[in-house]
Specification:
The structure is a homodimer.
Chain A (H helix, E strand, L loop, with lengths): L13 E6 L3 H12 L1 H8 L3 E7 L15 E2 L4 H5 L5 E4 L6 H12 L3 E4 L2 H17 L4 E2 L10 H8 L5 E7 L2 H13 L3 H10 L8 H4 L2 H15 L9 E2 L7 H9 L2 E12 L2 E12 L11 E8 L3 E8 L3 H16 L26 E2 L1 E7 L5 H12 L3 E11 L2 E8 L2 E2 H12 L4 E9 L4
Parallel strand pairs in A: 1-2, 1-4, 2-3, 4-5, 5-6, 8-10
Antiparallel strand pairs in A: 7-9, 7-11, 9-10, 11-12, 13-17, 14-16, 14-18, 15-16
Helix pairs in contact in A: 1-12, 4-5, 5-10, 7-8, 13-14
EC number (chains A, B): 1.1.1.3
Family (chains A, B): Belongs to the homoserine dehydrogenase family.
Enzyme class (chains A, B): oxidoreductase
Chain lengths: ~450, ~450
């Protein structure tokens, strides 16, 4: 049995070094200072910051760091004798973050990271290093910010076979989609507003193209399915292709558009894909507003679990990082991906085209005789059966908007029909298609 | 650092005895059988049922238990050398459940329980026993069924000062409220339907009077505020006083009625109360349908966390119980209430009357001259300021329904006004009042 701290025993402080003192790093400093006593009671020992390191010591960070030792060289955090835990907040899948993480684990120090890209790309190697040195590797902040979803899946739902894990994993996209919904805005206008308000970066690629969500999805999938992390198998379609009419038609159909990262295991393998979907109004993901994140896991005994909270920001991210540190302080941790790396399966990539479901399809077409017939023929030839069809007669983006919903069928049929139609001279721009989330 | 299982080391199975083989007990057997291999991978060792005990061995339970050793005497589970973990599913705050729990912990065995009443009444004593013997006491299934909310609060949100913890803690009441909403049913009809469908018991007191929710709330409060469990300080108002018009008027005001258990710490002490509330449509609790449960925690760094899932039933409850067993198998556990019992504060009971907020008030009155003036005068004399007032002119329960919403003010003023009005000959039945949940 594990060592339960005796109420009278006084354990030595856990000594923490922070690498990368940006918005999140400052949040961790503030949190550990503000909740110091409470954390010591909960952790059974004090948690002390002993050293900081970042590129620029003299940047004004709006928080007084003068009480802490500063190391210009991040490597010094790893070699220091008085550091038990290294917190990596440098960012980037490779480079200094990875060098630091490897060195810390290799030196037998505990590693806490918020770095989804690094975990998605190198999580298995880092977990092996951690196993070899019997030291913790924790990354709660890497997925869904402040929501303790890594813990909920690794531990809370651990008795279940998970059928699907999915959710809203990128707050920037959800903020943009919420703006498009509420303001009837175009994607470009909503993106510009999100940038102006600090919810989207100047180069929004990582967020709006689904790359960030793909990183997080790969981590959730490994935890839920006991499979080896495989970021190369995750595909992503972002939200750039959405137009205002998509949001409006989705609503008319009783749905909301959300960027969903979905992982599901079927007989062909593991499906991991990020794409905009139509979420039915009676699904809780339809009510996740603004920059929030939410994760759903469906277990064979527990049924549907739903977790919602802030997916980013200094406070929520710091909350997740410090929760990891408290777990370490309590000696309550184990293998990073719930089981040793060698026990994880290597999953085949599922045949995405074989996935059966209803789809929303939207085309912008020239308003001329024969276009409807062309669409209907392409659908028929590809074997797509149409359930409903809407042409409102209003223009958008240089043409007429046609939206339709298919009967349940394989995604490959939709792709084939749209490949035909994309080549048509009468179709303007790229057709949009989104699966309708099955309850 | 805690012992991380080496990938090659083979740990001995964790041996589990189940006491109380009802719906939940059978669920645990089914789960451990169905997910046996997966659980062994995740736990790092096999989890084996070695013995069962319940009052009636020969009852048909719909599951084959012949492979397991049966003990007619529950005490034999505690004295058996081959039992590591005793799972208590007997139920009841005292009696055989408590005797078993004390004996198991006293014998140094791990105890897993789904028994909210026992934890609410005797959790501190049991936690002391567990501490004295350095053995785990786990109770994830006691609150919100399959939702891993004990873990989320004890560990996931552990870095935060929690401002409020609250939620829908009783699925039976939420099912009844959802029926009243959808079918425009009376409380009595909705209760009868819930009973017919197995969602409510023949004697529904425990559920509809808020007692079950109060037990769960007391546990959440202790975890979130680091206070000693104090079920005597929890007050509860159930949902029997609701009429169809309350649900309708709440909707007209953009709200839904939910039975909310709320714990909040203020300068006067700890407030712990279960009562029906008006939940604004832009709060996620407004979208929790049917028998689901949901818990909200508001932390000073993480912001608002929201967890939803099945609050009862064999599968979800078994999921929570087995998650606890897996934590024990992994040696990932610590003090039952996040810190040793002696480190928990003893909180004063907050002055509930001083709580400031907006309220919904509904009266059924005789349709005669002067009644409105009587209401207005009683409100004025008690210092209650009225924001809106609705009299639709339709009858209900032998009178005319009058609903009003107050400006923010102390609850004591509402209570004073309603005490006056309850004594009036012109008021039919008992006035209803509900706080409007502040976002």
């Amino acid at each position: 049995m594990s060592p339960l701290p005796s109420p009278t025993a006084s354990r030595p402080p856990l000594r923490v070094a922070l690498a990368g003192i940006g918005v999140v790093g400052c949040g961790v400093v503030r949190l550990l200072e503000a909740n110091r006593e409470l954390i010591a009671r909960r952790a059974g020992r004090a948690i002390e910051i002993v050293a900081l390191s970042a590129r620029d010591r003299h940047k004004d960070r709006g928080v007084d760091l003068s009480a802490y030792r500063w190391e210009d060289d991040m490597g010094a955090l790893v070699t220091a004798d008085d550091v038990d835990v290294v917190v990596e907040m440098v960012g980037g899948a490779d480079g200094p973050a990875l060098t630091l993480a490897r060195a810390a684990l290799g030196a037998g120090k505990a590693l806490v990271t918020a770095n989804k890209a690094m975990i998605a790309h190198h999580g298995l190697d880092l977990a092996r290093l951690a196993e070899a040195r019997d030291t913790p590797l924790k990354y709660e902040a890497a997925v869904a910010g402040g929501i303790p979803v890594i813990k909920a899946l690794r531990e809370g739902a651990s008795a279940n076979q998970i059928a699907r894990v999915y959710g809203i994993l990128n707050g920037t996209c959800n903020y943009i989609l919420t703006l498009m919904e509420r303001e009837r805005a175009s994607f470009a206008d909503a993106l510009a507003a999100a940038q102006a308000e600090g919810y989207a970066e100047a180069d929004p690629t990582f967020d709006v193209d689904g790359i960030d969500a793909a990183h997080k999805l790969s981590i959730l999938a490994a935890l839920c399915f006991g499979t080896k992390l495989d970021i190369g198998a995750v595909t992503a379609t972002g939200i750039r292709g959405l137009i205002a009419a998509d949001i409006r038609e989705a609503e008319a159909l009783g749905h909301r558009v959300r960027l969903i990262g979905m992982a599901e295991r079927d007989e062909t393998g593991l499906y991991q894909h990020v794409q905009p979907c139509l979420v039915p109004a009676d699904h809780p993901l339809a009510y996740v507003p603004g920059a929030l994140n939410a994760v759903v896991a469906e277990g064979n005994f527990v049924g549907r679990l739903f977790f919602e909270g802030a997916g980013a920001g200094a406070g929520p991210t710091a909350s997740a990082i410090v929760a990891d540190i408290i777990d370490i302080a309590r000696d309550e941790y184990g293998p990073a991906f719930a089981m040793p790396v060698d026990a994880l399966d290597r999953a085949a990539t599922a045949d995405a085209g074989a996935r059966v479901g209803k789809h929303y399809v939207r085309l912008v077409v020239e308003d001329r005789i024969g276009v409807l017939a062309e669409i209907a023929t392409a659908m028929r030839d590809a074997g797509v059966s149409i359930e409903s069809f809407i042409q409102r007669g209003d223009d958008a983006d240089g043409g007429v908007v046609i939206a339709l919903v298919t009967h349940a069928g394989p995604a490959s049929a939709i792709h084939a029909a749209l490949a035909t139609l994309s080549a048509s001279d009468h179709v303007v721009g790229t057709p949009m298609h989104m699966p309708i989330l099955a309850l």
